[in-house]
Amino acid sequence: MAHAETTRVQTVIGDPVGENAPVPRAKLEAIFADIQSDLRYDHELNGCLNCGICTATCPAAHYYDFSPREIVQLLWTENLEGIYDAMQEKIWACAQCYTCAARCPFGNSPGGLVMLMRETAIKHRMESAKNVLRPFSRVMLKLISTGNQLSPDMINKDHFADWGPNISKVDAPLKLLRKAIPMPTLNTTATAWEVNLKTSVELYTIWEMTGVLKQLEGIDENLFDVITDIMDEKREDWKDFLADQEDGGKHG
Amino acid sequence: MAERFTGHGAEWRDSNLTPTEAKVATSWVELKVDKRSMLTQKDRVEDVRDAMWDLERDGEIVVHRVSDEHQPVMVKTLYGWDKKIPTQRLWHHKSCGQCGNIPGYPASLLWLMNKMDVEYLDETDQTSCTAWNYHGSGIGNLESLAAVFLRNFHQAYVAAKAQGLPEAYYYPLVHCGTSFGNYKEVRGYLIRSAKLRESVKKILGRLGRLVDGKLLIPEEVVHYSEWLHVMRERIAGMRELDCSGVRATIHPACHVYKMVPEDAIYDDKINGGNRLAVSTGIMQALGAQVIDYSTWYDCCGFGFRHIISEREFTRSFAIDRKIRVAVEEAHADVMIGHDTGCITTLDKNQWISKSGARPVELAVLADCQFAALACGAHPYKIVQSHWHASPTETLMEKIGIDWQAKKAEFVAYLEEIKTGKQENLYDPRRMITSGPGYIPIKAAP
């Protein structure tokens, strides 16, 4: 007997016992295997009695169709279709406050598990992850290219109209206001603090060796291109500096 | 029947309790959730530092110690364990959100340190912890977070060499609550997992950031609010303004005490030992009234990704679950926090409440900003209150600050800056410790 297509899982994945082509079982298993393979998995998931204290205290559950209890249950019962479904939208509702982890009598960390699922959604280049992260791209650009997540020039009335007129209560150019901060490292506008050139170059090595650039390429190829161009430029600057030093040139 | 989307499923029905019945029904929960036992009644808790010392004995790692020269003060954490808080020779691990958005936060901290002759270094050779992006986007992974942690803390270990001083001279002091929580979590995994240590060792080796060929792990991961906490009586001794009329609510930061909760400071004399001690401790020492409110346990609504790209959640949560409760229930004059995202969220997301029927507003400051104000810091030059969207002016009036006069002084100071005059908290030459712009100078006397 064909099943009626009424549930989210059936809509998103297809009905495993119906006529619709389901997401291949192998794909669902590969996704779950990736989540489980993270060394944090066993630390974050210890068991679940469905008490729901995590959901009762969850800020995202107030506003979204999201329940940390559901996330834990899906993983605990190895509900592969449900896991795939939750990765389409629900995992992105979590506010990452870890209130659930602090409260869980079993010592589970639903928030931590959500991170493993988000990483896996990116690894599998899910369309849903790409859509969710598109408005976040300027933050990723800033962070990966400079090591600073947020910069003063990002905080302006165009980007944050709902913050009202008081982005600064003193009306003066941003550059001047930044000079009026008595910490010389903060006299910047494009980064939160002045970042040493060597620091940036070291950070790029970390991104490369840990597969972060590959993650980025899979989720936003244009952003990846922009960032790798910036990285190349800074590495050239660093090489020039080192060559200059070897030649006994002035650098200070 | 109107559609409802509660997120609880189709079987969900309202209980329709009377207010009295609801009070009875929730009182048991309230009694439980406000207690420290909520966090402590669990199995499988270990002090990861025991394993850390074992690893050092086995020659696997080097531990960056909080030494006598750092003049540590001992505090108790959730389970009554000791934690060493260094008070001298500090390396400032800045917060990108604080520096980019609320710069009076770190400036106030450094100003307090200057007042107490605390030696420190604020340098450019550091990245953010990268955890804001990680928690928001999922771009990043345990290995990258661990490598960034070890790189930055190694730099703290060697930074003093640029001033002709020995390694391990400075001890890192972490400004951001998310960095603090993330670094503690990552340190735990590094200590537990040989596989993780092996993979990041290759990276740190490539960067030239091993000590004697080994990974460097800090004995303690220390948050600035912990430094402020142990210095609270000395800071109270410098107080110039009367804070006794101030009704303060505290917002404890999730990543400070819900992540790796066993490392958070609790003190039986503060909040009966049932809640995090930092921030409440300094506010009480300064003579302010700390007022309770029912949603103290809630997060701020920051959400990492949400504050950038899903802002309806952030502002609704900040207004309805925090600011409105603090104003209407506690009649607060200020909400005090100790983390980057919380201060930003709670401070910036009030104006939009004017679009509704019940607008609400409340001054929001970090604990060190309030402490600096109370000790006579300039509200604009140091505390940089002009970056705060919330009504800090009302609070300033309450503690006797003529903010209009101070603001006029600051505007005049901006004109001086145009002519090249600039006041700094330290010698700018010290901020670059290598590479372009580095000037070898001795440590400040």
Tell me what you see in this structure.
- The complex is a heterodimer of chains A (252) and B (445).
- Chain A is built from 15 helices and no strands.
- Chain A has two domains: 8-124, Alpha-helical ferredoxin (Fumarate Reductase Iron-sulfur Protein, Chain B, domain 2, Orthogonal Bundle), CATH 1.10.1060; 133-246, no CATH class.
- The longest helix of chain A is centred in the C-terminal third of the chain and has 26 residues, at 221-246.
- In chain A, helix 2 crosses helix 9, helix 11 (137-146) runs parallel beside helix 15 (221-246) and helix 14 (212-219) packs antiparallel against helix 15 (221-246).
- Chain A is globular and about 70 Å long.
- Chain A has helices spanning 8-13, 25-37, 41-44, 53-56, 59-63, 68-76, 80-86, 99-103, 110-123, 127-133, 137-146, 174-179, 197-209, 212-219, 221-246.
- With 252 residues, chain A is mostly helical.
- With 445 residues, chain B is an alpha/beta fold.
- Chain B folds into two domains: 48-225, Glutathione S-transferase Yfyf (Class Pi), Chain A, domain 2 (Up-down Bundle); 241-413, Rossmann fold (3-Layer(aba) Sandwich), CATH 3.40.50.11810.
- Chain B is built from 19 helices and eleven strands.
- Chain B has helices spanning 19-33, 37-40, 48-57, 96-101, 104-115, 131-137, 142-158, 177-192, 194-206, 224-230, 232-236, 254-257, 280-285, 306-309, 311-328, 340-348, 367-374, 392-398, 403-418; strands spanning 61-64, 73-76, 82-85, 90-93, 120-121, 171-174, 215-218, 247-251, 289-290, 334-337, 363-366.
- In chain B, helix 5 (104-115) crosses helix 17 (367-374) and helix 7 (142-158) packs across helix 8.
- Chain B starts with 18 loop residues before the first helix and ends in a 27-residue tail after the last helix.
- Chains A and B meet through helix 5, helix 8, helix 9, helix 10 and helix 11 of A and helix 4, helix 5, helix 6, helix 7 and helix 9 of B.
